Here is the input.
Amino acid sequence: MSYVGPDSDGFFDGDGPRRPRRFSGGPLTVALAALVPTALAGWLIWQVVGGPGENEPAKTLPAASQSSTAGADTTSPSPSKSDDGKKGDASPSAAPSKSKPPASSSKSAGSGPLKGKVVVIDPGHNPGNFQHAAEINRLVDIGTNRKECDTTGTSTNAGYTEAQFTLDVSRRLRTLLQQQGATVELTQNGDRSWGPCVDERARIGNKAHADAVISVHADGSAAGNRGFHVILPASVNSGSADTTAIAGPSRDLGERVAGNFLRATGSAPSNYIGGGTGLDVRKDLGGLNLSTQPKVFIECGNMRDAKDAALLTSGAWRQKAAQGMSDGIVSFLHG
Here is the structure.
């Protein structure tokens, strides 16, 4: 989701420019920042397994149920300059489907521990965004200011796009949550030619009265920057944005997702954002500012780093990533 631009020492993302910052939270965060990576990993896993219902073994998706989109590993679209003037974007090799939006909605097929719970998954960006520069560059209100409707996302150096990655992981995550009995809705499922805009993404979760919302992304930072981080909403009350009621629950959701993601994937927390905690708090993302439901973003790794890219382009690793997110959401909803 992020970019390093030639005229900035900060990062860019799907909601606009930002500077990297360390999370400045309470005493727990200060303590975490002082831990060495091994101790941090142990703490996160303790957080995960210590809560209600978290001692159950991770559930794996049966091979027959795994998404066929894992074949995207071999797709190598031609890199091109992004429509919003940022680096690192690539055009997909085929036009996205223009089927009707109902495909994005998916109801629970049975009972389970999450029966009666609603989860909205937001696959970041859209494979067709690069063909719709005028539409995605349109400014929308995010409460604190106005920003671009959406961006094209980043890609690996070989051309595997963030939009392809987010759709694949989101579909895998949907299957896992449905197996737990949840009702799951995607903000887009390759069923629209561009978008939705960041404000509409927030409204989809709000309208669904989601018990949890997660926006799936991958970063586009400098080589050598590795690891995942979970973005939490800051407490914002400005214009149409008011996150005061969801900031606390969203932090709980984010901490559980981070701990379970670490355990499922073995990936370390980001070495360039979050001070080693794997958590980052932001007030400049419309998808978070406009949400009235507990919501987090997850940057699963850095597509511009060769080692992280090898993970992100692996179908087996993406399944682990989906499992970690699912386990974190289940833990949050059980808690």
